[in-house]
Amino acid sequence: MTRKKTTVYIDEGLLRLTKIAAVRTGKKEYQVVEEALRGHLGIEAVTRAWKGSELSEDEALALAYDELHASRE
After folding, report:
1. Considering Cα of 5, then 10, then 15, then 21, what sign does the dihedral take?
2. Helix axes 12-25, 29-41, angle to 10 degrees
3. How do the domains of the chain map onto residue ranges?
4. Does the pTM of the predicted model rise above 0.85?
5. Which of 4, 39, 43, 57 is the most exposed place for a label (fewest CB within 10 A)?
6. CA 2 to CA 27: how far, in whole Å?
7. Cα separation of 14 and 37, whole Å?
8. Alpha-carbon distance 51 to 57, whole Å?
């Protein structure tokens, strides 16, 4: 997986919590942020759904999108 450097602006308290999570888990800060984004975007759900089914990539993405938004209602 190729990574690209970017700049984001986040709340100082959130950045502090990110650093704490990184230290506690032995990960890099960017790894904590990537995991949080993947979770928020439902990427892990897509991966699980895709591996365990006959769905196409588009069908798996649609399913994950529906599940993500259904859980917020």
Report:
1. negative
2. 110
3. 11-41, 43-73
4. no
5. 4
6. 18
7. 14
8. 10
